[in-house]
Amino acid sequence: MDMEAEEFHGIFQFAVDIDDDDDFFTQSVSKEERALERMRKENSIATYRPNFLTGGYELPLEEISNVFFASKNGPNTVKQAIEWYYSVMKMKDNNSLPKEQIQNIKLYKEISYQYIKNCCDKYLECNKSKGKFINEREILEIAIRCLIQMDRTNEIAPYVEKLDPKEPGLFSFSAKCYYLLRQYSKSLETHQKYCDLRKNDYMSWLDMSKIFIDINNYVMNKIFNLKFEKIPDLYRLLYIICFVKAYKLLKANKIARKTEYWDKVIEKELTPLQKVMDENSDYEEIVNQTLMITPEALDEKINEFNEIINKFCQEDEITILSLPREQIYWIIKHGKATIRESDLNDEENEASCLNIY
Description:
The chain is mainly α. It contains 18 helices and no strands. The longest helix has 23 residues, at 234-256.
């Protein structure tokens, strides 16, 4: 699950969501036209290339203090500076800043993911000491992204636990973080809450499929050289259910959308999924058969799988690999890709997909 390529999830949508009030962009054409133009030019959805940058957001780390933070506009000024730093850093990574713009950024040389993370920590420290607590979600998210960019995923847990997601996009972001931490059960729980809010976002179903295939492959590697009369197939089946639903959701949106922009979005995302479906022509039949499973047969498969991991895995591995029955029941209950035209025309569900680029 590539967090770098999926920065469209979260509150501060660094890579994709072009807000008409955003000072970082010129506003001469529509959001859809700008997104389509960027897609034509760039190979990566994570590329961040604004046409114009404004100043006024720079606030050195040493000036972020309890006294400044307690001033009337202190918290907002610090938050804007941190968001600005992260945007600049993304452009430094992509070598997309012209020299004349670089010259106008006083802290250009100092700005790094570590510098931004230090600013986030200072914000959190000042906020903790402040009498009236201010929401920290945006700052926590940026701190997490910086750690991931620095390949320090093992350090994100304290920040993820404080996110307390309420917005749908932040649910999905949190779920991806739990996946990176190999907290599979927590990731599934969060994805499933998100899917209850956004029924047609195929990305969560695709992410859940990766959780099940990861667990399945890990256990299969454990027992590869051992002789079993019956190899447990539960998590492989759950992977297929999630993958096929993601594929069908995306394909249904392709049929529903007729704009050039949407065709480009779907083509890029659908092609690799279509390749897997073409190579596995039995997937849809497997899904149909699995979704008809009786509760008793499902419980038997769950018990069979749990028996295997309890026998051949260490205690810490069992904690990672074990999933509550309720999460598996949820997949069976919601795994059928029943897509109504009214769902596809729902503005919230459309937004969750249109913001991909």
